[in-house]
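Exam revision sheet. Question 4 asks you to relate a sequence to its structure. Input first:
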Amino acid sequence: MLNRSKGPAVWGPRAQIDRTLYKHHMQKAIFNYPNLEVRAASVFDLVFNHDELGPSSSLASPRWGKVAGVKLDSGDVISCSSVVICTGTFLSGEIHIGLETHPAGRLNDPASPPAGLSASLKQAQFKLGRLKTGTPPRLDGKTIDFSAMEAQEGDVNPEPFSYLSEGVANVDRQLRCYKTHTTPQTHRIVRDNLHQSIHIRETVKGPRYCPSIEAKVIRFPQRDGHVVWLEPEGYDSDVIYPNGISCHLPPDIQLQMLRSIPGLEKAEMTKCGYGVEYDCVDARELMPTLETKRIGGLYLAGQINGTTGYEEAAAQGVLAGINAGLGALSKPPLIVTRADGFVGVMVDDLVTKGAEEPYRMFTSRSEYRLTIRADNADLRLTGKGKEAGVISDERWSVFESVRGELEKSKEIMESVALSPHGWAKMGVTVQQDGIKRSAYDLLRLPGMTSERLLELVPTLYQVSRRSLNRAVIEGQYRSHLRRQADDLRTFMADETLSLPIDLDYDTIPNMSEEVRQRLRRVRPVSIGAAKRMEGMTPASLVMLLRYADRARMAEAVI
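Answer key, structure tokens:
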């Protein structure tokens, strides 16, 4: 659990998974999924229908076409009405190693052909950009001196990600990570060879929050060292991933650099590091469902939307996949707002502001992070998933049971109410004001824990420790949550004032041409989304509000 020393609002569950085991279990889940047919093939392009654009085919509409199928490189066509594109770094991807470049999305894997999907997106007039990322060299663990490094153990009692799981597999077989650092010599080697890397050019933006070692040396010349985490790739592998030194220099220079790091003096590379430059779509071309505004039935997820990171891509994939399925069935979409979860924060940031550099999700990006904590994700989102038809009966049954336990925990704590004198007899110091307080009220006291509550209220043993811990967190944040609830009500009021996707902004008076251009590009779906746009002025917002009010009144009359 990341940030365990801080408050629960910024806790972040994290796991490092054995690559072989992950592949095995994910393939098992995919190949045994009901009604899912899996085909192994390379997609060359999409097939479009320009005759049936649907309800948004007015002159003001940005629609260019509608998805009709997927064309494979074999020439076969799979007919469909919804497609999710998750191209990662493969869309016109280009590998950089030193001064050498070649088309690829990953080392030894070809990029998408320029005549296929990339050309179609350009033909549809999507605004495309270029971003870049990189990866560190992989190391042979047998050549590393781990005794010169600081060992990093996993959690003693790791918590599973899912509330369907009672425990974590292989908890007794956790592998250590190790911490080392770069040195002034490392930085000198990098600095002396910057001219040998094409990847560091500033015309293409790279990730700000996980920069390459070249970028670190340039941005932080005053630093003598940067942390490097050595992470094992699995039980049956000697390969080590050195997190923190993404590198694109020539292989011989990379090896020199590695051997200047404590513990890596004799290290050997199994694969050199490299950079990747790739195409992405301006995410302002998307709706909150992750469907594109230009092509009906086309959904985008992951790095093609300007994000970086596994979790960011996975979250988009889930949302885009759900909405692609719902769209194919002509059912209402699943919308996750900023108030619902971090997925909603990320999507809202992307579709209203775009990504000038690879986007990463942080708790600090949310104004409602006390409400959308990791520990209450099921309470916030399972109901929405149930409405969308993506929650299994097993999961819903477990959810209802857990929700019942949480309510029972709170009821038990609220049923035990004592005077300050009564609590003092039990060793709890509260203000001597004569006011009765429940055990639930005691959660506001510093240092009140689940263990102490069990001593004070033994009937709490009737609920699981996991549910009790969650109830304690909710109680500790109670006063803050009340204040945040007011903010949430204001937010939702703006979100319910919808704007049509094909709105002709030229018909709205007293609005500057600059604002009109921004609105035409983003096409916000609500007043709330328009508020969060860059460049939106108060005067223009008033005009939009008047339009939304008139539209709502017209609907009421109808």
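Marking note for examiners. The longest helix spans residues 393-415.
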